[in-house]
Design a protein that fits this description.
297 residues, mainly alpha, two-stranded antiparallel sheet, 13 helices, 74% helix, MetI-like_sf, transport, ABC_transporter_permease, cell membrane
């Protein structure tokens, strides 16, 4: 029995080992090294890296400093994107899943594939498609507006249209993932619940509120948290479509972090900004979880 137990543990360890090694090599070690760098005056092209303690963090929280302006401006733009995109990603993802479940089974798979396909393409391909859509002079959307005798819109150069463009692009690109997760969750809700509610006289809205939402609550929380994390890490859409413009109005925090590291060549301060960004994401995710399960506990 002891030998069998040891063999079982060894087998389990061997299965987990590749993931553990990958986790350490590509996640844990870079995080620890990033924290180490954030405590140094770490210039990209310099061999000397002076330990400065919390000086990089102090500069970020010092009003009037360059890092303070970079961090707060980038963070505010990122928060705006999160507020604009996450509710739509969750609500429309669920709505698409509900509509998909109403379709005949023989064509349900076709529509599932159709909506999920954009999620599989790269950011550069996404940008090429939507640059053609949003082009002020020859874009599809302005061409459609011209046929309706409506003045063209500067989708990528004027406020608030730049935010509309970024959110539309994000919805088209990523909502398929949320839809698939919601679809699987809806399929797990027992049909007996709906039949019993119908017999009791509950209409469609009451069945949705009383049965569907409580049943998919864990999946809903998962979607909200993952969508929030992804939106906080937004980079490809503003970088490829608006370049952070007009001005710095859509220059998100991750763009400022990379500019500080590779244009300013100050990797230490860039790492400090990235660590603070990670802490903010962790806090926001924890608050979301607490709101979702705090009352129940």
């Amino acid at each position: 029995m002891v030998k069998s137990s040891l063999q079982s543990r060894l087998t389990s360890t061997l299965f987990v080992l590749p993931y553990l090694l990958s986790f350490c090599a590509f996640l844990l070690i870079p995080i620890l090294y990033g924290i180490y760098i954030s405590f140094h005056n770490f210039e990209l092209l310099s061999d000397s890296h002076k330990f400065v303690g919390f000086d990089n963090y102090v500069k970020i929280f010092t009003p009037g400093s360059y890092l303070f302006e970079q961090f707060t401006t980038g963070l505010w733009n990122t928060v705006q994107f999160v507020l604009y995109s996450v509710p739509l990603l969750v609500v429309l993802g669920l709505a698409l899943a509900l509509l998909l479940n109403q379709l005949p089974k023989r064509i349900r798979g076709l529509f599932r594939t159709f909506y999920f396909m954009p999620y599989a393409i790269s950011g550069s391909v996404m940008a090429v498609i939507w640059l053609m859509m949003f082009d002020t002079n020859a874009g599809f959307l302005n061409g459609l507006l011209a046929k309706l005798h409506i003045d063209p819109v500067a989708w990528l150069t004027d406020l608030p249209w730049v935010w509309v463009s970024l959110v539309l692009t994000t919805l088209w690109w990523t909502i398929g993932f949320n839809m698939i997760i919601f679809t699987n969750a809806l399929n797990e809700v027992p049909e007996d619940y709906y039949e019993a509610a119908s017999i009791d006289g509950a209409n469609a809205w009451k069945r949705f509120v009383s049965i569907t939402l409580p049943s998919i609550r864990p999946v809903m929380l998962f979607i909200i948290i993952t969508s929030t994390i992804a939106s906080f890490n937004v980079y490809a859409q503003p970088f490829l479509l608006t370049r952070g413009g007009p001005g710095d109005s859509t220059k998100v925090l991750l763009m400022n972090v990379l500019d500080e590291a590779f244009k300013g060549k100050q990797v230490g301060s860039a790492s400090a900004m990235a660590i603070l960004m990670a802490l903010i994401i962790i806090i926001v995710s924890a608050v979301q979880y607490k709101i979702a399960y705090g009352r129940k506990e």
